[in-house]
Amino acid sequence: MSAIRLLVLGAVRQHGRAHGYQVRNDLEFWGAHEWSNAKPGSIYHALKQMAKQGLLHAHEIAPSTAGGPPRTEYEITEKGTEEFFQLLRESLTGYDQKMDVLSAGIGFIVDLTREEAVALLKERVRGLEEWRSTVTEYYTPEEGPESIGHIGEIMDMWIGSADFGAEWTRGLIRRIEGGAYTFAGEGEPFVGVLGEGEENPYATGVPHEGDQG
Questions:
Q1: Residue 115 buriedness (CB in 10 A; 0-12 / 13-18 / 19+)
Q2: How buried is residue 99: exposed, middle or buried, by Cβ count under 10 Å (0-12/13-18/19+)?
Q3: 135 CB neighbour count, 10 Å cutoff
Q4: What is the CA radius of gyration of the chain?
Q5: Among 130, 131, 113, 134, residue whose Cα is nearest residue 176
Q6: Is residue 6 within 8 Å of 105, Cβ to Cβ?
Q7: Rounded average pLDDT per 10-residue block, the chain, 213 residues
Q8: Is residue 169 packed enough to be buried (19+ CB in 10 Å), middle (13-18) or exposed (0-12)?
Q9: What is the 3-state secondary structure (H, E, C) of the chain?
Q10: What is the pTM of this model?
């Protein structure tokens, strides 16, 4: 699973309608260009591909009075919304998800109900615990990695990652169950997108040909 599809669908969905540069700007505002493959070329390519796949609807809009080519605004379709939620749920439950995919999922977790978010995260913890138990059939952390040579360091690294992942997820579950954040159906959500013309303090400032599209 690629984080870019979830990120782009989620960004468009939050705006309602957005052109490519707005999506790029939002993802840079979230720092996604640092922790995922959400680079300008990937973002613009994903927008065009998902429009072809029927996940987004492309609206041609007139050029500005200042001149320049017409821009395309994207709007998520019903099929795109279904894809978004499917990817979101997968990102939160998979114990073996890459960090960029999990990060994207956490970024949109409040689009779910509080109850479903907790249930999905608990499923992730179960997956981590089950995976850890299969590793410890061959490797006993208490004996230390040296017990099976330097290869033990690999096993130790993965056990440590599983333990940290489970503990971090349990902490997030506790915070959510304790009332943190505003989830779907609970009121006005946190605004995580930039308004038209709003300055992005985290923008890379690197131009790309797709910025005008």
A1: exposed
A2: exposed
A3: 14
A4: 20
A5: 113
A6: yes
A7: 90 90 86 82 92 94 59 93 97 90 94 98 96 82 76 84 95 97 89 66 56 53
A8: buried
A9: CCHHHHHHHHHHHHHCCEEHHHHHHHHHHCCHHHHCCCCHHHHHHHHHHHHHCCCEEEEEECCCCCCCCCEEEEEECHHHHHHHHHHHHHHHHCCCCCHHHHHHHHHCHHHCCHHHHHHHHHHHHHHHHHHHHHHCCCCCHHHCHHHHCCCHHHHHHHHHHHHHHHHHHHHHHHHHHCCCCCCCCCCCCCCCCCCCCCCCCCCCCCCCHHHHC
A10: 0.84
182: which 2 tokens? 């505003």
